[in-house]
Amino acid sequence: xxxxxxxxxxxxxxxxxxxxxxxxxxxxxxxxxxxxxxxxxxxxxxxxxxxxxxxxxxxxxxxxxxxxxxxxxxxxxxxxxxxxxxxxxxxxxxxxxxxxxxxxxxxxxxxxxxxxxxxxxxxxxxxxxxxxxxxxxxxxxxxxxxxxxxxxxxxxxxxxxxxxxxxxxxxxxxxxxxxxxxxxxxxxxxxxxxxxxxxxxxxxxxxxxxxxxxxxxxxxxxxxxxxxxxxxxxxxxxxxxxxxxxxxxxxxxxxxxxxxxxxxxxxxxxxxxxxxxxxxxxxxxxxxxxxxxxxxxxxxxxxxxxx
Length: 307
Ligand SMILES: NC(=O)c1ccc[n+]([C@@H]2O[C@H](COP(=O)([O-])OP(=O)(O)OC[C@H]3O[C@@H](n4cnc5c(N)ncnc54)[C@H](OP(=O)(O)O)[C@@H]3O)[C@@H](O)[C@H]2O)c1
Hints:
Layout: E1 13-17, E2 20-23, E3 26-28, H1 32-35, H2 39-52, E4 56-58, H3 67-76, H4 80-83, E5 87-92, E6 94-95, E7 105-106, H5 110-123, E8 129-134, H6 143-155, E9 159-165, H7 169-178, E10 183-189, H8 196-199, H9 202-209, E11 214-216, H10 223-226, H11 230-246, H12 251-261, E12 267-270, H13 275-278, H14 280-283, H15 291-302
Parallel strand pairs: 3-4, 3-12, 4-5, 5-8, 8-9, 9-10, 10-11, 11-12
Antiparallel strand pairs: 1-2, 6-7
Bound molecules: NADP nicotinamide-adenine-dinucleotide phosphate (NAP).
């Protein structure tokens, strides 16, 4: 199948809950240290990303030990006109060594979540976070304490919406059962080379809850281009075939189209720093794969036919 007729003018936004939408693609800051760019260059990058129509920026308190949030704040802080044009997402609850602790662990207590949200606000030089995610499930979670943090941050106007990341269905439902505020997304790993969240039904759970998952490492962190393991080599060959069939420019277009073809409304977070790469998931919005093309790529990853 070439261009999907319905997708010739692709939706550029996706609604997560009433009155709150994200751009169809988000830009993530996990690789801030790898980018090796100055604050001025980051400022230009943010402008370029916004010009493309990507308004959603994905952070976490621990990306580059906090330096990613600080750099972003320096890039946008003095430019108040930018703030209303973007959605800022950040995550917390991973407690890293060096900050009063020696072992990496999770902390979903009210005290920790509030302290980290306030730190993120200071780092990013903003008054509010659009969407705060709990970064990892916490086996020691006291959901009453976590829900209380949500309520207080929301009431203070410091955080507008909440969600989770890397949560499994039961973990999601358990937390939701304690919070009056809805969890509006689950940020999970999905790509042509990462099927775990299909296999364990996390994506089907999101569909049950009518939420759109955000997707991290949508190109498997670049492994679709450079991976030399058997699955990566097989998938790359299949992506190349489908690229030629649909008339796409590059194999990343096909990898993004594979995500868009799924009916759950997956929202990819690109981790690239080159505008030319960041543009690809937007270009790919025009494509939908046939069911057979989708399964050929699935089978190339698993290495066996479906039962
Ligand atoms: N919630 C979580 O637990 C979690 C975990 C991991 C990540 N995340 C989020 O997801 C975001 C994306 O993750 P990711 O960075 O792994 O995503 P990704 O988009 O799968 O991988 C990005 C990498 O692929 C490279 N790349 C992209 N297009 C390319 C192309 N056409 N040719 C060659 N290389 C290309 C980039 O290179 P360049 O750097 O040269 O552009 C970059 O190194 C993160 O920034 C973060 O916001 C969340």
